[in-house]
Design a protein that fits this description.
This protein is an alpha+beta fold. The chain is built from one helix and nine strands; from the N terminus they run αβββββββββ.
Length: 160
Amino acid sequence: MHTTQRQISRALAAGALSVALLSAGSAGAFATGAKPAPSPTMSAKPNPKPTPSPSMSAKPNPKPSPSTMSSISVKADKTSVGVGDPVTFTGRTSGLKVGWPLVLQHQVGGKWIPLKATAKVKNGSSYSLTAKLNNPGAEHLRVSAVGKKVYSPTVTVNVS
């Protein structure tokens, strides 16, 4: 039987992969620090609340650090305008890069709909955008970071 160079290469690669997988698996088991459970013994005081070990938890719940959280503030220059009159919204951002796109949204039937008013985060983390409001009544508005789940608090502008 004649063995080709390709067959030898495949066999070596398969062996190297097997060794890598086995060593990674044993390293992972070693890293968790898994200890065998102690055998049950009779004790005078039962422990009613077992404490779960870290390896038994379903999923870690890391809390984001304040440096990774983003926020947007907003202020409207007018709280009451006529239909079609411009309103300027200004504010500051935190955790968003300079140049990040922002969009003004208004609430319609419980859903947030983007308007055509957009801006980008400027140096100093500020922004300013102007919109003409055409729907009479109380407009509930917010500024949203495009592509992120980061929103300003809601502001209300009465349009008459």
